[in-house]
Design goal:
- The complex is a heterodimer of chains A (about 130) and B (about 220).
- Chain A is an alpha+beta fold and about 130 residues long.
- In chain A, about 30% of the residues lie in helices and about 30% in strands.
- Chain A has one domain: hypothetical protein PF0899 fold (2-Layer Sandwich).
- The longest helix of chain A has 15 residues.
- In chain A, helix 1 crosses helix 2.
- The termini of chain A are far apart.
- By secondary structure, chain B is α/β, with parallel strands linked by helices.
- Chain B has one domain: Rossmann fold.
- Chain B is built from nine helices and eight strands.
- In chain B, strands 4-3-5-2-6-7-8 form a seven-stranded parallel beta sheet.
- In chain B, helix 2 crosses helix 8.
- Chain B starts with a strand and ends with a helix.
- The chains are: A alpha+beta (about 130), B alpha/beta (about 220).
- The interface between A and B is large, with 40 and 40 residues.
- Strand 6 of chain A pairs antiparallel with strand 1 of chain B, so a sheet runs across the interface.
């Protein structure tokens, strides 16, 4: 159950990255690889706990899963359907060279930022 | 108010990764080989580590260990009998070690005086996988009592390992261990990692493991 540690890391990274103190976060989008060892359902549960009382309290969490991709020396990049058989699905050659599926990444955040809006209005005045 | 999307593209564990990378640099500059041992509780990490540290001391290898557990310093007390420098990291119910815990427990140790540092992670096959500790060799262990398909059930860990160790081979026959099935399951998730078969009781494989841990892992990968 390290998803709580992962959730705390998500919250603190996002809070540190917020551009202005007034920005309200409405959504956080993550990419979690099939080979990362993180269970999305457990992370969603942990996120609610970690976000409570922070500026992410009302932000929805969107988790995008990324498949395991190996780089077969013969057939090139190939997606695997399971994590327990690292063989090229085309030529059956064993291959441990993973080029996708280990991601634990914050992709983007969606903000409602009054400060930002004000500055845009000022800029648009003649 | 129009919502706007801000690209972050940040690793969730970026803080840990940056710290681990600086630890790795520190270890490599001091010339100490560091391994991170991960297995389920009861695989026999501590017993094997006892045998390995004793062997290291006999060989004149300067070895130390950091051992992680949720509670107690029982393991550190056991391991200290080998004569190696040992410290316990008590995680207080946390299920894995993180880079900052390693950094905090190196205080007062001169890494230049060490050849080998073994980090025994908290017994857990899932959570430690995502956390880089600055090690150069990740070791995944399974015992002959655990079932040959363990690597298939926990592919993330066994895939991420640089070396895979089988423990308790002295009782393999008694528990009807199917060695070929286990090796097949290991190779299916990790076609390149060397497999070392060990017994802390008979000391089978202990010297081999010690040599493996003292060899840079890039060379292990390149070995045929």
């Amino acid at each position: 159950m390290h998803e709580l540690s992962i959730a705390h890391a998500v919250v603190s990274t996002v809070v540190d990255a917020l551009p202005s103190p007034d920005a309200r976060v409405t959504q956080v989008r993550l990419r979690i690889g099939e080979l990362s060892g993180v269970v999305p359902q457990a992370l969603e549960f942990a996120y609610d706990v970690a976000a409570e009382g922070t500026r992410l309290a009302d932000a929805a969490l969107i988790i995008e899963r990324s498949p395991i991709v190996i780089d077969c020396p013969t057939c090139g990049p190939q997606e695997l359907s399971t994590a327990h058989d690292f063989r090229c699905p085309v030529c059956a050659r064993p291959c441990g060279a993973v080029i996708g599926g280990e991601e634990l990444e914050i992709l983007d955040i969606t903000l409602e930022d009054p400060t930002h809006l004000d500055s845009q209005l000022v800029e648009s005045q003649p | 108010m129009t919502p706007r999307i801000v690209d972050l593209r940040r690793g969730i564990l970026e803080k840990n990764d940056v710290l681990a990378q600086s630890l790795r640099l520190q270890f490599s500059e001091a010339g100490v080989r560091v391994s991170n041992w991960v297995s389920s509780p009861g695989t026999g990490k501590t017993a094997l580590l006892e045998a390995l540290l004793s062997q290291a001391i006999e060989n004149g290898t300067r070895a130390a260990a950091l051992v992680g557990d949720c509670a107690t310093d029982n393991d550190a007390q056991r391991l200290a009998r080998s004569g190696a420098a040992v410290r316990q990291i008590v995680t207080e119910s946390m299920c894995h070690l993180e880079g900052d815990m390693i950094a905090a427990h190196l205080d007062g140790w001169d890494l230049n005086d060490l050849d080998l540092l073994v980090i025994e992670n908290v017994g857990n096959l899932v959570c430690p996988t995502a956390y880089d500790l600055g090690e150069d060799t990740r070791v995944a262990l399974l015992s002959v009592t655990e079932g040959e398909d363990k690597p298939a059930k926990y592919p993330q860990l066994f895939h991420s390992a640089d070396v895979i160790v089988i423990t308790k081979t002295d009782i393999a026959a008694a528990v009807e261990w199917d060695r070929e099935a286990a090796l097949a399951a290991i190779h299916a998730v990790n076609p390149t990692a060397p497999v070392v078969e060990t017994s802390s009781r008979t000391r089978e494989g202990v010297s081999e493991l010690l040599n493996t841990l003292l060899t840079p892992s890039r060379q292990l990968q390149e070995a045929p």
